[in-house]
Amino acid sequence: MQVLQVQLEIRPDPAEVGRARRWVRSRLAGSGVSDDEPLAETLILLVSELVTNAVVHTGRPAVLRLTFQGVCGAQTGAQGVAGGIVRLEVVDLSACPPAPRHAERDETNGRGLELVDGLADRWGWSPEGAGKRIWCELDRCPAPAPCGGGNAVAAPGVATTAVTGAAAATPTAATTVTASAYGGMAAYEAV
Question: In whole numbers, what is the pLDDT of the chain averaged over residues?
Fold first, then answer.
């Protein structure tokens, strides 16, 4: 299985949320995920929530990573992401872990990670250097056909990593993992 990972640096500015959404849309299109596919809209909403949390609650720079597992390389003539997993990560420089939060009916904040819990197939967080990593994954059906060889190509200025085999396994054993089933975890807001 081949993994394609791209990342974008996020400045501590609320305008970065819109830039992150546009960037992810362009990465999805380049990876074979069409705009009208439900996965695309769900992923854009998840990006909005996680990047907003990082920018608003930390006031520090962050890194947005998008990983496609099961991607066929662009030069193999394959159809992009036919199945597999799309993983979204936001790494910020705040060591504060997510803290429990419950929004009342008329409150406009406090629902971000509750949405992530409801929309993602899995999500969690782990310490990352001086800060933390909050991640979520979406499964894409049908399962991918095996991909052969090929090189992934990224846009200029975008970091890309292609990983195969055991190196593509889920990072860090110290990760808190939550499988979502609409309400499997209390609402948490990144602080």
Answer: 72
Phi, psi values for residue 164, rounded to 5°: -125, 165
Given a contact cutoff of 8 angstroms between Cβ atoms, the answer to whether 69 and 87 are in contact is: yes
pTM of the model: 0.68
Amino acid 53 reads N
In the structure encoding, which two tokens stand for residue 26, read together? Answer: 């362009």
What CA–CA distance (Å, rounded) separates 39 from 191? 27
| DSSP element (H, E) containing 24 | helix 16-30
CA 154 to each of CA 5, 8, 87, 177: distance values in angstroms, whole numbers, following the listed order: 9, 12, 17, 29
**Contact between residue 10 and residue 61 where contact means Cβ atoms under 8 Å apart:** yes
Residue 99, class by beta-carbon neighbours within 10 Å (0-12 exposed, 13-18 middle, 19+ buried)? exposed
Which residues have C-beta within 8 Å of that of residue 80, sequence separation ≥ 6? 31, 32, 33, 71, 72, 74
Dig out the tokens for 90 from the structure.
């936001």
DSSP state of 23: H
- pLDDT tens digit sequence for 64-83: 999 988 744 333 333 444 56
Q: What is the pLDDT of residues 48-59, one digit of tens each?
A: 999 999 998 899
CB distance 9 to 77 below 8 Å:
no
Run of H or E residues at 57: helix 38-58
Please count the residues of the chain: 191
